[in-house]
Specification:
It comes from Oxynema aestuarii AP17. It is a single chain. The protein has helices at 2-19, 53-71, 83-91, 102-109, 156-168, 184-192, 203-212, 242-254, 256-263, 286-295, and strands at residues 42-47, 74-77, 97-100, 115-120, 127-131, 147-150, 178-181, 198-202, 222-225, 232-236, 277-278. The strands form 2 sheets. Strands 2-1-3-10-4-11 form a 6-stranded mixed beta sheet. A 5-stranded mixed beta sheet has the order 7-6-8-5-9. It is of the alpha/beta class.
Amino acid sequence: MMKRRHAIAYIGLFFLWLTGCTLFKRRSPPPSNPATLHELDRLRFAVTDVQGEEQLKRDYEQFRQVLEEVLEKKIDFVPVQHYTDAAIALQLNKVDLVLAGPSEYFLISTRSRELPILSITRPNYYSAIAVAAVSGIESLSDLKGKTIAMVKVGSTSGHLGTTKLLLDAGLNPKSDCKIVMLGREGSLEALKNGEVDAWGGSLTDYETFFNSEGFSETDFPIIARGELLPDDIFLVNQQLGEELARDIKTRMFDAQNKLLTAIAATEGNQKYRNSRFVNFDASQYEAIVNLYHNLGYTDSLP
C-alpha cells in the first residue's frame, strides 16, 4: 500500500510536466539570444520552493529590488504552484532566472540544459528526524511500524534527505514505516500535536518552528541528523546565451554582500543567514541523483 501511495504521488508530481504548459501563456518572451542585458526589456524570476505570488513577494521582494539595482534591469516575478512548473517555464522560454534547490535542479536538468551560474550556500542545511520526548522513541530503529511526517515528495531536506537517514539505518521507508506528506508547517504541527510518531525535514524549519512555539530540543529531541546538503542554485535560461549568463553571474558575485543581506532579510528566508555565493560544482549533486536512483524514482522521469 505504501509503495502504491508513493507511486501515485510521484505520478502526480510528473503529471505537471504534461499539463503545465498552459500556465505561462500570458507572458511574452524576451528577444531571442540577446547578447547583453541592455537588449532585454526585463528579466523574469522564479523560485522553485515558493508556491504562489503572495509568498514570493513576501519572501523575495526585497531581494528582487536589490537585484534590479545590481543588474540594472526590471525584474518580474514568475510565481509557480509547484517546483516542476519552473522547469516547464524554462522549456517554454517563460522565465529567465530561477533559484532552485538541489532536488529541483536535478529534475530540471533531466528536461533541459539550463545554465547554472552560481550556488548559494546554506550553512545549516541538514535533514533531521525528531520525535516527542514522551514517545519513548530513542533511535531510528525504534521507528519501525511508526508514522513519520515529511514535507512533500521530492523535497531535498523534507523527503530525500530524511529518507536517506532511514535507509542508512537499515529501514525500508516503503515497508517498515508509514510516510505522510503534510507540508512544511503541517508536518511540524502534526508532531507537536501528537498526530504522528516522528517528523523529518529541514533542521532550520525545526529550529524556527519550535523556537516560535516556545519549545526546546528537550521537548522534541532530534534522534538523527544527516550530512550537510548541497547548495541552492541560480539557473539562467539557456536561450539567453552564455555571454549574458556570465554577465549576470559577474554582477551578482560583485554585489553579493547586499544581495545576500536582502535575501536573508525576511523571516521565511532565515535559511540564507550567513550564506555566500560560490561557483557551481556539479559533483555536489551526485548524492541527490544516486538517491533518486536508489528510491526507484528515475524510472518515472521523462
